Structure formats: C-alpha cells, structure tokens
Amino acid sequence: MSSIRVISGRFGGRKLDAPSEGNTRTKPMGERIRNALFNSIGAEIQDARVLDAFAGTGSVGIEALSRGAEFVTFVERDNVAGKILINNIAALGLKGETEIIRTTINNWLETSQHELYDVIFADPPYHDVQLSTVSKLFALLKPNGLMVLSHPGRGEVPNLIKLGIVVVDNRSYGNAYLTFFRRRSD
After folding, report:
1. Domains and CATH numbers, the chain
2. What is the pTM of this model?
C-alpha cells in the first residue's frame, strides 16, 4: 500500500491510502494535476454538490471536500479501490458528507434516481476512457455546472454543444489532459 496526500484545505497534508505502486487498475490523479485543477476552479467548489465518477481511492472528491464542497457522491466499481476509498472516508470522518456507490457508472445511471450536481469529476481508466459512458454523466449537471474529464493525450472528447454543453478549457500535464465542460444556463 502506498499513500498520497490531500493538498489543501481542512485536510491539507493528511495522507490517503492508495494502491501499491505497480497497480495498473487504479491510479490516483497525481498531486501536481490535482493541485492545478483545484487552483483553477477555486471558489466553484465552495458549498458544491460533487460527483466523483470513476472515483478510485477518492483523492479528487476528498480534495473537493477538504476545499469546501458540501457533499460528494463517489462511484467506483473496482473492489480494491473501493475498499481503500471506504477506509479513506472513515479515516477522515467524512461519512455524513459522502455517499459511496460500489458499481459501474452505467449500472448506477440505469438503476437509480439521481440528483443534479454542481461539479462532476470523471477520471476513467486511461486504457478505457469510456466516452459513451462519460457522455451520459452530462445529464446530471446543473445549469452552469462544471464537468472535468481527465483523459490521456489529445484524444477524442464528447462534443455536446447541441445539448447545451460546451468545452470551456483544455489543459495538458505531460500525457494527462483535463477538459473542462460547462452546461449553459440558457
């Protein structure tokens, strides 16, 4: 087992469990990218209802809570990552501010009633970005809400302008890219 740290906020500096080096199924978003991400969206996290899709060990959603999010729903299907996520939430005493869903995104979307979210983070496995599944998440975005997709390289990203979703920013960090989408409020 290895660890990563929460960068800033009320849990800044606290260690989170992460899969051991060499685990290829789950790789938490790197500290440099997480820091840049949260510095760029700043106040948008304050009091937000957040969805952390493909949550892994929860580092992105926990960072959001640390920086002032009101509530985070984590969706993760992998058993190893899910157990680590549950332990990280328990270690920080965040059970009342979180919901953990242990299934695939598609199964969750098809079998549950859903609220709308202010911010959605989608960090699917780089070997299987699942654009058709990621595209379904836009339906859960509030008007003027923000979705951030982490993906490898300058690959294809969903084009949903006809649904009122527009790309507002793209950032690259080595071989990792973040694409920022916003649901128009008109």
Report:
1. 2-183 (3.40.50.150)
2. 0.92
